[in-house]
Backbone:
C-alpha cells in the first residue's frame, strides 16, 4: 500500500498518459498534449516529464517555446538539436542539455541515428524570471561515477548546467543494496523522483522502474536501492 499522506503523490508507471504516433511513443507523467488529468497538471515548478521514444530519422520539427526551462536527457541513441539562435548540436547518450526558452526560441529535436530509435526524457520547468534572453548549455556526464549523488542542473553550481529557477536536478546511478541521504537545498521545497531503471525505497515508499513519486513538506530523504538502479531527482519550489 502507498502512503495516503497529503504530502506524497504516487505516479505508477502504468498510470501515465500515453501518446503514440507512427514515429513516436511518449509517456507523460503530467498532463501534456491530448492527455489531461486535472490531478496531474504539475508538481510545483515541474510542469512536464515525458518519456519519449522516437523512430530512426524522425523527430520533432521546428516549433516555438517561451518562458520555459527545457531539460533533455538521452537514455539511448542521439538527438540532433537545431534552434533559432544558430545552435546546431548532437545530444548524445550520457549527455544532458538545457535550453532556457526565455523571451522565445524555435527549435527542432530529431533522431540523429539512421538505424536505431532514440529514447530520452524531456523535462519542462517553469522559470523563476520571465522573458530572459534564450540560452543553451550541454555537457557530457561521467559514466564511471556510481554510488554518488550527481547534481546535473542547478541555479548555483558551476559544475552543473545553469537553470533559471530555484531547482536542483540530481542523477543517481547505484548498485543494489546501497543507502543514500538527500537533503533539500531550501526549506519548503518539493522533491519529485523518477525511476529510470531498477527499484528503490525512499522514505519507506517503494518506487519501481518508470514510477514517479513526489514529496512536499519533507526535507530529509533516505534512499535505499533494492536492485541496481538509476533515478532522477527533481527538487523544485512547490
Residues:
Amino acid at each position: 500500500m502507498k502512503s495516503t499522506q497529503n504530502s506524497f503523490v504516487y505516479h505508477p508507471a502504468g498510470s501515465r498518459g500515453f501518446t503514440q504516433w507512427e514515429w513516436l511513443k511518449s509517456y507523460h507523467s503530467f498532463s501534456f498534449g491530448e492527455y489531461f488529468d486535472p490531478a496531474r497538471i504539475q508538481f510545483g515548478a515541474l510542469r512536464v516529464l515525458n518519456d519519449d521514444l522516437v523512430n530512426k530519422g524522425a523527430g520533432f520539427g521546428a516549433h516555438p517555446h517561451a518562458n520555459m526551462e527545457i531539460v533533455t536527457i538521452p537514455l539511448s541513441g542521439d538527438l540532433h538539436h537545431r534552434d533559432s539562435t544558430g545552435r546546431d548540436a548532437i545530444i548524445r547518450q550520457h549527455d544532458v542539455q538545457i535550453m532556457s526558452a526565455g523571451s522565445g526560441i524555435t527549435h527542432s529535436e530529431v533522431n540523429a541515428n539512421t538505424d536505431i530509435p532514440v529514447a530520452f526524457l524531456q523535462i519542462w520547468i517553469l522559470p523563476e524570471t520571465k522573458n530572459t534572453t534564450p540560452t543553451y548549455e550541454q555537457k557530457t556526464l561521467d559514466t564511471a561515477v556510481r554510488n554518488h549523488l550527481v547534481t546535473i542542473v542547478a541555479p548555483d553550481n558551476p559544475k552543473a548546467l545553469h537553470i533559471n529557477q530555484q531547482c536542483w536536478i540530481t542523477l543517481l546511478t547505484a548498485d543494489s543494496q546501497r543507502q543514500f541521504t538527500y537533503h533539500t537545498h531550501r526549506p519548503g521545497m518539493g522533491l519529485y523522483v523518477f525511476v529510470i531503471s531498477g527499484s528503490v525505497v525512499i522514505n519507506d515508499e517503494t518506487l519501481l522502474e518508470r514510477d514517479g513519486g513526489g514529496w512536499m513538506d519533507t526535507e530529509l530523504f533516505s534512499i535505499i536501492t533494492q536492485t541496481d538502479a538509476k533515478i532522477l531527482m527533481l527538487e523544485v519550489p512547490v
